[in-house]
Specification:
- With about 180 residues, the protein is of the alpha/beta class.
- The chain has one domain: 3-Layer(aba) Sandwich (Rossmann fold).
- The strands form 2 sheets. A 6-stranded mixed β-sheet has the order 5-4-3-6-7-8.
- Helix 1 packs across helix 2.
- The chain is globular and about 45 Å long.
- The two termini are about 20 Å apart.
- It binds guanosine-5'-monophosphate.
- The site of guanosine-5'-monophosphate (5GP) has 15 residues, from strand 6, helix 3 and strand 9.
Length: about 180
């Protein structure tokens, strides 16, 4: 399927599933080297990262645990700005080697928020693995250890990514048709 329509928008195939497989192979290989003889605690950011996380997790050779979190979309008042609460962290990450698994880092604001929250639990190490990265949009300066692929500023769906809740089930990634 080369094109996919959701509501008013048309998307065309952009990153095929075999390239996504190559990407998860590359990241898992590097993690297996970097964390040899260490136990990894993966923290997956829902909803978007679930498919990437499951493909990646299967390729991890050492001891590893996985846990899923969500950032609520609750917005605070004008003085507190956008307050987002971390939901679902039921593992003790103190002194653990933690890798956050995210679908995409765009401006970097979401991840910065998450980094602050998770580091307050005092993990031993805290790194990021993101499937997609938009370097031209990124406004922050924290390091991102594992990046699957840099993309331009385009809106993508498929392989976990959605538009209004749809499109997550597609095995390839699609971009909006211009
Ligand atoms: P940031 O805070 O880095 O600007 O935004 C990160 C979040 O925005 C991602 O976790 C994702 O939910 C959403 N996002 C950013 N770019 C895209 C995109 O191209 N497609 C989809 N479906 N979501 C995106």
């Amino acid at each position: 399927m080369e094109e996919y329509k959701i509501k008013d928008r048309v998307f065309c195939k952009y990153i095929p599933s075999d390239e996504l497989e190559t990407i998860t192979n590359k990241i898992s290989k590097q993690i297996n080297i970097d964390y040899k003889d260490k136990e990894i605690m993966f923290i997956v950011v829902l909803n978007g990262a679930f498919m990437f996380a499951s493909d990646l997790f299967k390729k991890i050779e050492g001891k590893a645990k996985i846990s899923f979190v969500k950032l609520s979309s609750y917005s605070g008042n004008q003085t507190t700005g956008k307050v987002r609460e971390l939901i679902g962290l039921n593992e003790d990450i103190k002194d653990k080697d933690v890798i956050i698994v995210e679908d995409i880092i765009d401006t970097g604001i979401t991840m910065e928020n998450l980094l602050k929250k998770l580091s307050s639990y005092k993990p031993k190490t805290l790194e990021i693995a993101t499937l997609m990265f938009k370097p031209h949009r990124f406004m922050k300066d924290y390091p991102i250890k594992y990046i699957g692929k840099d993309i331009e500023d385009e809106f993508i769906i498929g392989y976990g990514f959605d538009y209004d809740g749809y499109g997550r089930n597609l095995k390839d990634i699609y971009q909006e048709k211009k």
